[in-house]
Amino acid sequence: MANSVYDTYVSPLSTRYASTEMKYNFSDRKKFTTWRTLWTLLAQAEQELGLDITNKQLEELRNNIENVDFAAATEEEKLTRHEIMAHVHTYATCCPTAGPIIHLGATARDIGDNADLIVLRDAFDILLPKLAGCMKTLGEFADKHKELATLGFTHFQPAQLTTVGKRACLWLQDLVLCEKNLSRVRTELKFRGIKGTTGTQASFLQLFNGDYEKVRELDNRVTKLAGFSSSYSVTGQTYPRIVDAEIVASLSILGAAVHKMCTDLRLLAGMNEIGELFEPTQIGSSAMPYKQNPRISERVCSIARYLMNLVNNPLSTASVQWLERTLDDSANRQLCLSEAFLAADGVLLTVQNIFEGLSVFPKVISRNIEKV
Length: 372
Prior knowledge:
The structure is a single chain. Helices cover 64% and strands 5% of the residues. By secondary structure, it is mostly helical. β1 (149-154) and β2 form a beta hairpin. The radius of gyration is 25 Å and the shape is elongated.
């Protein structure tokens, strides 16, 4: 039996590479408190539209959003074999007055999928400023070295002269394109909405005695309360899984861009034209401690390669969602979506570190030009 974190597997993305805020975003606490927030918003909207829900019940729900008994929920799930219902029961335990109206009319995906979309939206909001920071630092580097002539290469063979700044602009342009793509995917992300078991909203029609307008307004109100401007017009049991594929694809493209850039830096380090920050206490190699290996760029390439290959999972998942939905997406999505953002986050933190510590060696660059 594991007695400490050193006795069990942990992901390197969570222990070594990703930021605290991104790790929290995909944590159980964020997940389950978001579920409770959605149950509270659903009850609030249902009350506003005429269902018999009291202010006392709503206050009880709000006051217990953070009061999650994780151990009790785990034990409850062993009995129910249903994660969301386990948390309905656990929430109801600390909200005895509001217990009967938790999850009223909803299906698991009204809560789980909408919570996932909130987490994904927030993940973009953590990631995009970091990408902007990398672009700013790289832009400053390009401007600083815009007149420093260097030998250009095609096919990794000596070609015409270019400048260090112009070459950096090639990397920067790739990051600009990635930022536009990621921002578009973030902007176009929608809420699943309150659609019921198979997207027909039948349970809510029953609750509101067939009043279609109230059912539509319930969907609209919860969407707005959750911070989204709109929901997907049509869903099955889930939001379209092609959305996950588009999200991970945008992150994979970022992976390709930084992999290309850091591969270039590794080649330039091999020619001693550009170098990463090398700390006085750093050991380059166990046998040759003086070696200034481009280890940070190598790390970026390593994580980026993993990120680039993650896109196959959501593509496969989207392609096999039978009719209104099948459950073989669940475990895969829990792995793939979180790891894609954690990997992208780790990559950008590392890239920023590289940019801030880059050294350029003009004398070596001049000698390399003269050799041709």
